[in-house]
């Protein structure tokens, strides 16, 4: 049975690729928080912020100064941030590749998926010998990223069609070792037969939605009343994004027909949008104020985007999509 805790990374950590975004993990990653923070206010403009300002903002979220500096340095080495220096002062901004990936990811976590299901399953069957372990891990990671889960060893399923980009990825990873087909399940009379939905730990995914709703519902009245401001607004907005975006890997967006009544996907999405958008203005004011302390009073290109912007597709204003 596939557990959401088995998922290592929303972005494959491919050392041959120049861009390596932070791993998704249980708990909070300093590098992940740094990426979220920069993306929330500079994704559209790719503005360069003084490293001292980024460190100051990160320390307000509970990160130590040393931890913040280490995270920035590592993100630069991974190709997520571009660095520049003027005298003794350094600045960083999102790399173009990171901004493109984050923009696509922002759309992915918010795009509505409650569509009608045709009752068919896509089955990916593969056979790779044990000595090709690295190839097996890469294939399994790509299938998880596409929302598939193992019904049996070497047989992975999804209720959705395999998209052309995913087809190209699988063909590249395992030439000649994969077969893909789409079919309906035939239920057996035996009580021991395994249903396709059993490939996922639906109860565990549901508990994550319940935890999210319990954690953030009490804050919503304060946000709507305008009582969350300053560093608290930035901290809450960063945390709610860093938490909610994990659902893009935890939840394979299974059709509602296969899920228990009262599934938390839609309520969680609505709660996230209300808090994230409701805190955009006060959080933007605070980020501008902090950055201004290190830039002679200016706030270069700091713009908080909303969930509507993410759905449309946040663009780099300087160079198009």
TrEMBL record:
InterPro entries in UniProt: PaaX-like_central (IPR048846), PaaX-like_N (IPR012906), PaaX_C (IPR013225), PaaX_trns_reg (IPR011965), WH-like_DNA-bd_sf (IPR036388)
Domain (Transcriptional repressor PaaX-like C-terminal) ranges: 200-288
Record-level GO BP terms: DNA-templated transcription
Domain Transcriptional repressor PaaX-like N-terminal, chain residue ranges per copy: 30-96
Top-level division of the source organism's lineage: Bacteria
Ranges for domain Transcriptional repressor PaaX-like central Cas2-like: 115-188
Protein name in UniProt: Transcriptional regulator, PaaX family
Protein source organism: Micromonospora nigra
């Amino acid at each position: 049975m596939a557990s959401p805790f088995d998922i290592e990374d929303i972005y494959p950590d491919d050392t041959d690729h120049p861009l390596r975004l932070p791993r998704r993990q249980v708990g909070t990653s300093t590098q992940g928080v740094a990426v979220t923070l920069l993306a929330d206010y500079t994704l559209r403009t790719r503005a360069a912020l003084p490293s001292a300002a980024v460190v100051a903002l990160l320390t307000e979220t509970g990160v130590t100064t040393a931890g913040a500096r280490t995270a920035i340095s590592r993100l630069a080495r991974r190709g997520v941030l571009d660095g520049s220096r003027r005298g003794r002062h350094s600045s960083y901004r999102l790399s173009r590749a990171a901004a493109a990936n984050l923009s696509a990811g922002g759309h992915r976590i918010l795009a509505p998926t409650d569509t009608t299901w045709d009752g068919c399953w896509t089955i990916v069957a593969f056979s790779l010998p044990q000595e090709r372990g690295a190839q097996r891990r890469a294939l399994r990671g790509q299938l998880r990223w596409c929302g598939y889960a193992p019904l049996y060893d070497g047989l992975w399923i999804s209720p959705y069609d395999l998209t052309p980009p995913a087809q190209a990825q699988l063909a590249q990873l395992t030439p000649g070792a994969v077969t893909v087909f789409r079919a309906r399940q035939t239920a057996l009379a035996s009580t021991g037969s395994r249903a396709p939905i059993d490939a996922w730990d639906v109860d565990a995914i549901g508990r994550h939605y319940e935890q999210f709703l319990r954690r953030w519902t009490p804050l919503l009245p304060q946000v709507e009343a305008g009582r969350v401001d300053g560093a608290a607004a930035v901290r809450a907005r960063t945390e709610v994004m860093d938490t909610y975006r994990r659902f893009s890997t935890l939840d394979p967006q299974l059709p509602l027909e296969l899920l228990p009544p009262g599934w938390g996907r839609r309520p969680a999405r609505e709660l996230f949008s209300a808090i994230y958008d409701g805190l955009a203005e006060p959080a933007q004011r605070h980020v501008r104020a902090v950055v201004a302390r290190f830039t002679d009073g200016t706030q270069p290109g700091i713009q908080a985007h909303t969930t509507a912007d993410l759905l449309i597709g946040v663009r780099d204003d300087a160079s198009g999509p």
